[in-house]
Amino acid sequence: MSDKTTPPAGETPEAVETEQVPVEQRAPEAPVAQADPPPAANRVLREILTSNWLISLLAIVVALLIGAILIAVTDPAVQKAAGYFFARPGDTFRAIWESVSGAYVSLFQGAVYNPKRGDFVNAIKPLTETLTFATPLITAGLAVALTFRVGMFNIGGRGQILVAAACAGWVSWSIDLPAPLHILLATVAACVGGAVWAGIAGVLKARTGAHEVIVTIMLNYVAFYLISYLLKTPGALQAPGANTPKSPPALPSAVYPTLSDLLGVGSYRLHLGFLFAIIATIWLWYLLNRSSMGFRFRAVGENPHAARVAGISVTRVYIVAMLLSGGLMGLAGASQVLGTTTTGFAAGVDAGIGFDAITVALLGRSKPWGVFFSGILFGALKAGGYTMQASQGIPIDIVLVVQSVIVLLIAAPPLVRSIFRLPRPDAEPPARRKRTTATPEAVTK
Amino acid sequence: MTTTAPAPAASAPIVHEKALVRSWKTPIILGVFALVALLMAFVFPNSGETTFTLSTTVDAIQLAPLVVPTQITVIVVAVLLVLAALGAVAFVRFGPGRAPLWISVVFAVLFLFAFLTWVAADKNIPVPGMLVGTLALSVPLIFGALGGVISERGGVVNIAIEGQLLFGAFSAAIIGSITGQPVIALIAAMVGAMLVSFVLAAFSIKYLVDQVIVGVVLNVLVVGLTSFFYSKVLTSDPSLNSPVKFPIWPIPGLSEIPILGPVLFRQTVIVYIMYIAVFLVWFGLFKTRWGLRLRAVGEHPQAADTVGINVNRTRFWNVALAGAVVGIGGAYYTLDVVGQFGKEMTNGAGFIALAAVIFGRWDPIRATLAGLLFGFATNLQSVLGIIGSPVPSDFMLMLPYVVTIFAVAGLVGVSRAPAADGTPYIKS
User: Fold this and answer.
1) Residues of A in contact with B427 (CB under 8 A)
2) CB neighbour list of residue A235: distance below 8 Å, 6 or more residues apart
3) Which of A368, B8, B55, B197 maximizes the CB count within 10 A of its CB?
């Protein structure tokens, strides 16, 4: 279908083009392409997309091992047993095992299934918690992934989520509408808010060349102080009569219905936002892989110079991609305000999702379904992390460590390969570098 | 730079035609602010008297507080500001085409004076306290900005300044508590921040991971690690989080200078290191072989490689050096102002430092001034909070970030990054 609807200007894929052009015309293009290489972001993107799932798995294993080391080292019982290590080494290992296994068992119980909670309805509640935490991570991760595919970075998730939350929040308590309409309007308001905030960075990049990384980072803080101000101002976002910077609660008609409302059992917090996240994933998959706009996006992401030559308006792609990304971020903001913290929010409503989203997108290799599942994994880490903190006294911050180690390792496949002594595929940059450093030596000899 | 003549220099004497570029940006901005001053003077006048306290009780030379009648002062200064704006217009219209920098500086100082006088009608502005607060907030920003300048001049984007500051503060707190020696703690801070740099350098130079990604992820990693240890270890054992602070060393003579003396020269050794570091980085970057090489690697790595500079090794060690410099800024938190480590205590200072790097156009002196400006804006917000100001404090806090967005968008001056900033070098 897409073959017929796409305009011819944006179509012409590079591969087809080079095959169809006669050789004598193709020859002078090669040096031009060499002199004008795609920017670093595009090369990085290719690297992210081409490394395989095994690396991801190994990276998760290494990260969990590092987490285990941190847990063991800081556990007082382990430290005590290590005091007489040479007398009875078995004690130390037992203490390490107990501390680490206790931590990861409670992580699992907090994230997936806890048989201690009695019947199935309660025992499975942790899984719904995982999905609840995953909901904003997925949509925000999709937002970041979308910009990665265009060769841009959206570090501004925090600001976009805050602005979106403010928009959704305002609609949710100041307009009186019947339920489905109200939910829809509040969600759309969030998307528009996020899109506008991200759009600033897109327009500035397209018009003035301002680097979107810097602009989005700065916009995070501008949004934070703006929302803090509005939350302190009666008549803007502050709850009437409140002394604290907190918003009024959302009207019941705007709150996302939860799974419990649907099934009539349990006390699940999983809400409509998760359905939106699934829809957003399918939509982004369709957009990137099946639509002409997605083709233009990917073309610009692979090589903006080539895309421009092919007749694609690169500046327009930058702006549109940023707007769509902001809209997805807005969805994450909506799920926070209308789904989880419906009793009124403070300036910390973003809960670090904007930055987590970057790690989610990287782990998901910027592919919609990859992002979906990595969002669920990080949601599980978050949900389990809170249980681990409550039952084992292990600070939730360890989840940040595990997350960032996973992403660092995934971003550097050669490192994981060298840790596990895996064979190196030929296309790896270090291999190429080795070869070139070997050549001059051979010459001098 | 000016000596590089165009190729056909040998032909007949060339009369250089000077293209007169008239830049109206400065006069327009000055005009807007002059209008604001006129509004303060005539539309929303404040009556009464404003007191500027000029010395604290411990100062050797006591200055009488400066008391000015609010309304008349604001009117007089507003008129002066209008004249200055007209002067800028004259410079652009009839003079060299652009307003000189000094007119903007004079204007800014006058405007600030008018604003403070207007805000603090019948109240007291403690000038020394305000300056001390500015410097205290600026020190980490300036160290962060210097580290950012070194690293980015070499072609490695340093988003991880925040993480380096935080880890520096953390290492200084722990080692300072264990050894009881602030000097060793300071070295530990440098080493700690350097470790963060090593990860940044290894991933971005050896494994060619995108520098922005590594920087962002490193910040998360450092926040996670330090918060984990803080909650798990430091809160249960406070003796690990009570480093010995640096004592204040007044410099004899210099610290007796009225107003500025106590602010600049009654400080700890970290602040004195900062003065030296600013000079050293500037001197090193522009006057030594090290600086030339560093800049070459950041501007045109292929050319640098051709003349025999090892690009990746230069980058690696300079990123490490940048980390060490930022680490001193981190130590300032735990060994000077605050005195102990707190969860996420840097609170975004690393990003303001990044903003200072960009606003300072990748130049150590300008970046330092930008750091001072941002520190001043942040501090002014708390001073105004005490006095009770018409401008909400959140907007003052927003200022550095907004200014930076304007700067990168090219609306205020032109800030151009080193040409190879952010691109890894692959030898071909």
Assistant:
1) 433, 436-437
2) none
3) B197
Query: Does the pLDDT value for residue B411 go beyond 70?
Result: no
Distance from C-alpha of B294 to C-alpha of B304, rounded to nearest angstrom: 9
| Annotation: CATH topology of B128-408 | ABC transporter involved in vitamin B12 uptake, BtuC (1.10.3470)
Nearest to B225 by CA among B257, B186, B195, B190: B195
B409/A400 touch (CB, cutoff 8 Å), yes or no: no
Side-chain half-sphere CA neighbours of A67 within 13 A: 29
pLDDT > 50? residue B405: yes
Give tens-digit pLDDT for A154-181. 888 999 999 999 999 999 988 888 888 9
Q: To the nearest whole number, what is the mean pLDDT of chain A?
A: 82
User: Shortest CB distance from B213 goes to which of A214, A411, A414?
Assistant: A411
Is residue A418 within 8 Å of A161, Cβ to Cβ? no
pLDDT in tens, A122-136: 888 889 999 999 999
Contact B233 A74 (CB under 8 A): yes
Closest chain B residue to A213 measured between Cα atoms? B212
Residue B132, CA atoms < 13 Å, CB-side half-sphere: 16
CA A417 to chain centre: 24
A chain contacts of residue B231, beta-carbon cutoff 8 Å: 395, 397
Contacts of B219 in chain A (CB under 8 A): 355
CB contacts of A225 in chain B (<8 Å) are 394-395, 397-398
Q: Please state, as a whole number, how many other Cβ atoms lie within 10 Å of the Cβ of residue A149.
A: 26
In this prediction, residue A110 has a pLDDT band, given cuts at 50, 70 and 90, of confident
Rounded to an integer, what distance in angstroms lies between the CA atom of residue A119 and that of residue B19? 83
CATH 1.10.3470 location in chain B = 128-408
CB B137 within 8 A of CB B302: no
Q: How is the beta sheet containing B124-126 ordered, strand by strand?
A: B66-69, B49-53, B124-126
Cα–Cα nearest to A40, from B423, B416, B149, B259: B423
Flag if B209 and A44 touch (Cβ within 8 Å): yes
Q: 3-class SS at B168?
A: helix
Asked whether the beta carbons of residue A436 and residue B427 sit closer than 8 angstroms, the reply is yes
Q: Is A72 touching B (CB cutoff 8 A)?
A: no
Rounded Cα distance, B234 and B245, in Å: 18
For B59-73, B166-180, B261-275, which range has the lowest pLDDT when averaged over its residues? B59-73
Neighboring chain B residues of A436 at a CB cutoff of 8 Å: 427-428
**What are the phi and psi torsion angles at A271 (to 5°)?**
-125, 180
Question: Lowest-pLDDT range, B10-19, B260-269, B339-348, B402-411?
Answer: B10-19
The tokens for B417 are 């990054």
